[in-house]
Write a structure and sequence with these properties.
This protein has 150 residues and is of the alpha/beta class. Helix content is 43%, strand content 18%.
Length: 150
Amino acid sequence: MSRSDPSRDTSLFARPVVPVASVNDAESTARAALPRIAAASGEMVALHVVEKAGGAPDKAPVEQREEIASEAFSVVRELAAEAGVDVTTRVAYGTNVADTILEIAREEDASAVVFTPRGGSKWMKLLTGDVASSLLENADRPVVALPADE
């Protein structure tokens, strides 16, 4: 059955894009999402976005960010194997994290974007932008915020 087949599972968890920002984020997000994906007999697309500064110096060297992605994906792969869920990993580069997540979700024909919100003060979100709010405001598919597995 192809991904464009209308008879495919329409569950939110059939083929979600699951953004992960760090090892800790990957672990909490995977623990929250994988049981739901497994219950839907779904597959997961784990995504790490390397934020580019668009002409200004990047926040961290690209190589360092790619290493963070690799470590986060290792955690996701291990937990996905335990849950019996197939996982694909992708690293994407963009100047706007939320827009890049949504672009990859379109490319992957994702059933939803699934994440666990990361903490942070309202002041920091105001200064740096709030990816979760931007995802919700600009989404062309369901966006699911799951509580982190404590």
